[in-house]
Automatic annotation (TrEMBL):
GO terms for molecular function: ferrous iron binding; oxidoreductase activity, acting on single donors with incorporation of molecular oxygen, incorporation of two atoms of oxygen. Fe cation binds at residues 73, 75, 124. It comes from Alkalicoccobacillus plakortidis. InterPro entries: CDO_1, RmlC-like_jellyroll, RmlC_Cupin_sf. Pfam families: CDO_I. This is Cysteine dioxygenase.
Length: 184
């Protein structure tokens, strides 16, 4: 039933505007109880990632957080909205100069029920306690996501089935880029 509702809300979207994408996420009006059947735990990764809907124009992902921080990352050529379904989240935004390590420049906090925007090519990192549940709607579906490892001073373009962490599986590492430390 909920899957039918998702499809009815998202299937009509073709190249949605930023506001059109936000309205579609809000129209879903997803509750914890509706999403509960899709929740699985993830103890080794920052979150369990469940694809709930995908067309050639948009994708909807549910993320159940483990308490581990994700890595700084972008969303390739996609933009999106993130809705906090349960818990509280810290969203850290980074500035990135060409081929340099990202630098944290602002941190914002969002509580249950709030939504926030993830612009195309922006780099961010999310943190939350175990039990944080977030719903992500992106346009177009994420491809070419770049994940940053601040300790290795490197970035990696990851495969579409990888989340916002440095992949252990070599097949998920499409391109590794050595970065320079930002000048002080």
């Amino acid at each position: 039933m909920f899957e039918h509702h998702i499809s009815n809300c998202l299937r009509p979207l073709t190249k949605p505007s930023i506001e059109g994408l936000r309205q579609a996420l809000l129209k879903l009006n997803a509750t914890y109880d509706e999403l509960a059947p899709y929740i699985q735990s993830s103890s080794e990764k920052p979150y369990y990632r469940k694809l709930l809907f995908q067309s050639k124009h948009v994708e909807l992902l549910l993320m159940n957080w483990s308490g581990l921080d994700c890595a700084p990352h972008d969303h390739g050529n996609s933009y999106g909205w993130i809705q906090v379904i349960a818990g509280n989240v810290s969203n850290q935004l980074f500035k990135v100069q060409s081929n340099e390590l990202p630098e944290l420049f602002v941190e914002k906090y969002y509580k249950q029920g709030k939504t926030f925007f993830a612009p195309k090519k922006s780099v961010h990192r999310m943190e939350g306690n175990k039990g944080l549940l977030t719903l992500h709607l992106y346009a177009p579906p994420i491809s070419g996501m770049k994940v940053y490892d601040l300790k290795k001073c490197a970035a990696c373009v990851v495969s579409d089935d990888c989340g916002a962490w440095w992949p252990e599986d070599q097949k998920q590492r499409l391109k590794v880029i050595q970065l320079n430390e930002a000048p002080e």
